Structure formats: C-alpha cells, structure tokens
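Ticket #293: bound-state structure for zinc ion.
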Amino acid sequence: MLFDTHCHVHFNAYKDDMDDVIKRTLKKGVFMITVGTQKDTSKNGLLVSEKHDGLWASVGLHPNHLVAQSFFDDDELPPEKQTTNKIKTRTEDFDYEYFRKLAQHPKCVAIGECGLDFYRIPEEANKDEVIEKQYEVVRQHFDLATEMNLPIIIHCRDGYDEQADLVFEYTKEGKLQAGGVVHCFSGNLEQANKFIDLGLYISFTGTITFPARKKDVLIDGLTEIQNVVKNIPLEKILIETDSPYLTPLPYRGKRNEPGYVEFVAQKVAYLKNLSVEHVAKQTTLNAKKLFKL
Ligand SMILES: [Zn+2]
Ligand SMILES: [Zn+2]
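RESOLUTION: The complex was predicted; output attached.
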C-alpha cells in the first residue's frame, strides 16, 4: 500500500488515457490525491475523484497563476482553455466563495496547492507587487483551511523562511488546526525542522532520486534534499509524484504517473536504511492521518 499524496492526474497531460492511468495505479495499491491549481483544475479534480474509490482531490490556486505568465503549460490545461495566459492582462484572483463551495465536496480533503514561490516570478513583472499578491492569496487559503478545518497543501520555492513565518503567525492564533504539508520540499534541514515544529508534514517527490548536479554541495555524499530525508523522522514524511512533472529515476525524462511513487518510497527507504515495506506503511499511515481518511 502506497499513497501518492500530490499528483495532477486530471491534467491535460492525461487527456487520452486518464482512466487507464488511474485504474492501473489503484490496481497497484496506490491511493492518490489529485491537486487543483486554478478554478478549472480544482473543479475538474473533484469531478474525477467522484468516479474512483481511492482517489481524492484538493482545491486551490497555485502561485504561478497569479501573474500573467510568459510560459504556457500544455500539460495542465489544453491551450484553448489557458485563459490566464492567453489574455496577458488577466490573472486569476482567489475567489473565496467559489473555493469555499468546492471545499464542501465530500471528496475534497485539503486546501491548496498555494504558497510563496519567489523562484518563478516573470522578469517583466513587478516583483514586489507579485510577492504582495502571493501573501494575500496564501492568507485567503489559510483562512479557508481554518474555516473548513481542512489541511493545507503548501507549494513553496525559494521562500521557505518567509513561508514558515506565515504559518507561525496563523498557528499561534490557534488557526490551521487541521495541519498541512509542505509539498515537493526543496529547502534545507533547518527549514524542514521549522515546519515540523509547526506541526506540518514534509513531502518528497522524485527529486530525491536525482543525482547531484555539478553545483551541488554534497553532505556525506548526499544532495541537500537527500540529507533532509535522512535526518527528519519518518513519522513526519509524506511521499508524492507531482505527476505529470518531476518523474523519478529510472523513468526521468518520460511523463510521470502516480504509480511511480514506489521509486520515491524506495529512495526514502535507502536513505533511512529501512525496509521499503516499513516506509510504505508509515507514509501511508501519515497521509491517512493528515487527510482524515
Ligand atoms: Zn507545487
Ligand atoms: Zn503540484
């Protein structure tokens, strides 16, 4: 039994074979949460989740959709539906009531993905304005998660300290009681421990299977992210694929799919010197506990 706690199996990348992918994943004994990133993909994820036992969904607005971006993601929505990108001046705002309504769906298990992403801010954008907008939208997600008593799925890049400060601000007021997860973690050990101290889980993707790049500074022969896996408690770890992105070894370069979460589990087991069965069992338990399943 494995749990891919963060995939996008309802995205356009699977438009030709979505049901096959979901069925073979479930047949392998892998549960899934398919994660929303915009209004459209949040709603569609819930519709897909209605059709399958063992598949749940989350609803939210990804920080990359707050600004008119110069990149297109055909894997996410087909080109004709990419209104956020097509009309360069229009960006998607967080529609609290719209998401609040979706969040009442029985298969909605979390709010997100949302968060601070200082890495992917388009060059032509006003950086301060974008960051201010990101803060505003994260706060709206945190308020909704608090109101609905649902866990939060955080997407963060290059802003982990600021993101942790924001979580702290909420938890000290008794908010975000349902906890949450920092997905596709790419920070350092100190930052991981900050989130764990705030009661959150840390989730890892196929990036933990990747070999070191030339610029990486190794820690006892491990990349920084592998060192984080090694040093945080298994009881605080979730595993995921973030399909269709970030395909783990040995399939790196091909389209990712939720069943490949087994390679993430194998790498966690290797790094922590535990059996794969033990890692599978504990991370599935962690996921069930967080998402109340
Ligand atoms: Zn993400
Ligand atoms: Zn994602």
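RESOLUTION NOTES: The mean pLDDT is 94.
TICKET STATUS: resolved
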